[in-house]
Amino acid sequence: MNDELLGGRRKALEDSFFAKENEKLRQALQEKESTQAKREALSAASGVTDDSVLDELIALDISSDTLAALSLVPLVEVAWADGSIDEKERSAILSAAEHAGLERDGASYQLLQGWLAVQPESKVLSAWKDYVAALSNTLSADANAALKQDLLGRARSVAEAAGGFLGLGGKISSAEQAMLDELEQAFS
User: For the whole model, what pTM was predicted?
Assistant: First the structure.
């Protein structure tokens, strides 16, 4: 009888152990499939095929739904370059968002609103640079030049929106110019 009791407990412990291990494996597989699905959706939306860049975007909670906001990172970074966002800069960014087709109730617009309220972490700019580098590898020289001109032109417009201190001096602060220069380097 002792052998039966011990055998039954052993069997129950084994079943419990293997059930927990199976659950861990199932969760790991589900997570892997979810990450792969996110990679595929981001790749389809962006044209980027480099898994390391896609994984970096996923880690920042950038999805195919919020990818459009990533194109506005240069504008946000220029606006924050001097430590705060001027109302004219905010207006210029929101206008650019509208022009880009971001809907006010969409995920990209909400992400952008968060970036306008609180300066994004430096890893957002880093992810944008990696995104641009990966995207540049997939574009022709002409398309890459057009993308660079468009993005930097919109960023420069935001920098010029505030118009200098009390309308005097240059329209672009030295901090904003430094950010514009850094953004331009991402295309090299």
Answer: 0.67
